[in-house]
Amino acid sequence: MLREDIEFKSAFTVSQKPFKAKLDQNESPYDLPDDTKAYLLERVREVSWNRYPQPLTYSNVKERFAAEIGVEPERVALTFGGDQTILSAFLIAGGPGRKAIIFEPTYPMFRHYAVATGTDADVVVLGENYRPSPEHFLGKGYHIVTFVSPNNPTGNLVDEDVVKAALETGALVFVDEAYYPFARTSVWDRFKDYPNLMVGRSLSKSMLAGMRMGYVLSSEKVINAVDHMNFAPYNLTHVHLVLFNEYGVIKPHLNRGAETVIRERERITEFLRDRGLNPFPSRANFVMFKTEGHRELYEFLADSGVRIRDVSGLPGLSNHLRVTVGLPEENDLFMQAVDRWLESKG
Questions:
Q1: Most exposed: 186, 237, 289, 343, by fewest CB within 10 Å?
Q2: pTM: predicted TM-score of the whole model, two decimal places
Q3: For position 16, what pLDDT does the model report?
């Protein structure tokens, strides 16, 4: 009855231990203010819940959202979360008989969607530095070349010259920029005139994880294909469309939260460096670091009420942990617990 080419396992899970600081899922530590939520909920109340979203509404919302992010509306597609941006790339350019390249360690949904769409994917394990090179894809006949910038969990940006080399092969080049709000730089700015560039972004990392909102930037041809395969606007709810439409109200809160996260990211990095815990420079809202006692530290933190992520099971990583940047007081709890662990080691 079920496909034999897939090993069906439990869904993606995280620790369920009680916590004082939840620093394991790359979420924003900040929520929208109550008065902003009240305003947005009133806008949701005004729409007809018994009616499907309409194409004209989608078009109008796209136009307003595009103006807020400074692009032409015909070059934007609105999606159900950042994951749907990745799936869209495989739906429009992958499939049986077509080839993709995925660089790991990275977000597991790339490999997942390659399997789901029957795309033949070559997986290149780069290890802790995540440095794709043109030699990995030139002359290989790929239909999709994927990058994540900043990459999760390594936190670094992809070299733009490598992206350019991929674009010049003619493949669909998908760049996941889910952490763009914290990097403040984008391949879109340099390469938006390439018709085969497809940038996927998420609003989950900067404050709206619970709302599952993402968007694609690309050429009009690619955007039309994405909207077609997602059956836009029926991939979205009225709640999504209201929030996209009111992005101008939401955006200042996201920007302020991101500014604080960037400052705290540097504080955490300096702390880990001073303790000899080998942090990797990050342009995202998390910091990856490594220590020989990674599992012991992970359990010590969990028992102290500080949840971070053990990423040592990802390809190319062995003793690495990742901490999401939280509220300043949550980050203090993390650092205090790390110090207690180090003291216990003598």
A1: 343
A2: 0.96
A3: 80
Tokens of 91: 């739906």
Give, for 286, the enclosing helix (H) or strand (E).
strand 286-290
* Residue 74 confidence class, pLDDT cut points 50, 70, 90: very high
190/184 Cα distance (integer angstroms): 13
How far, in Å, CA of 322 to CA of 227, rounded?
A: 35
Q: Pinpoint the residues of the chain covered by CATH 3.40.640.10.
A: 49-250
The topology under which CATH files domain 21-31+252-339 is: Aspartate Aminotransferase, domain 1 (3.90.1150)
Confidence at residue 159, expressed as pLDDT on a 0 to 100 scale: 98
Query: Please, where in the chain does CATH 3.90.1150.10 lie?
Result: 21-31+252-339
Q: Are 182 and 285 in contact (CB under 8 A)?
A: yes
Rounded Cα distance between 255 and 262, Å, is 11
- Residues whose CB falls within 8 Å of the CB of residue 92, separated by 6 or more in sequence, listed in order: 172, 222, 225, 226, 229
Q: How many whole angstroms separate alpha carbon 168 and alpha carbon 65?
A: 30
Q: Pick from 274, 257, 276: which is nearest to 325 by CA?
A: 257
Q: What is the pLDDT of residues 210-221, one digit of tens each?
A: 999 999 999 999
Q: Domain 49-250 carries which CATH code?
A: 3.40.640.10
Residue 166 has pLDDT above 90, yes or no: yes
